[in-house]
Design a protein that fits this description.
6-stranded mixed sheet; globular; STAS domain-containing protein; Transcription Regulator spoIIAA; 3 helices; alpha/beta; 109 residues; single chain; STAS_dom_sf
């Protein structure tokens, strides 16, 4: 597994087409997470998965990051196979009525 970004309370890792966020990302991390994830996406050639199973904080910042990654994947003609959300992020998606915004069925870990 390759670590793409590591900050005090958040880590972004990639392995075999899966981009994983772990920790407690917040608004201070969002821009760098989005930028680093998009750079990784630009190096991919087919299907990808976004894994936020390890995210332990409910944050709309993380949802914004994932939306940016989805826009980048679409622009790069990549297929987003799966989006795996922590239970807390899944609750936020439902609460914010964003289920239809995500182009693939999300699942909880």
């Amino acid at each position: 597994m390759e670590t793409l970004l590591e900050r005090k309370e958040v880590r972004l890792q990639a392995e075999d087409g899966v981009l994983s966020v772990i920790g407690f990302p917040d608004f201070d991390d969002a821009a760098e997470l989005a930028r680093t994830g998009v750079s990784w996406l630009e190096q991919q050639s087919c299907a990808v998965t976004f894994n936020a199973c390890g995210v332990h904080r409910i944050s709309s910042a993380m949802l914004s990051v994932m939306l940016e990654w989805m826009r980048a994947a679409q622009r790069l003609s990549l297929t987003v196979e799966r989006i795996v959300l922590s239970e807390r992020l899944h609750e936020l998606v439902e609460l914010a009525d964003l289920s239809e915004v995500f182009p693939v069925e999300s699942e909880t870990c």
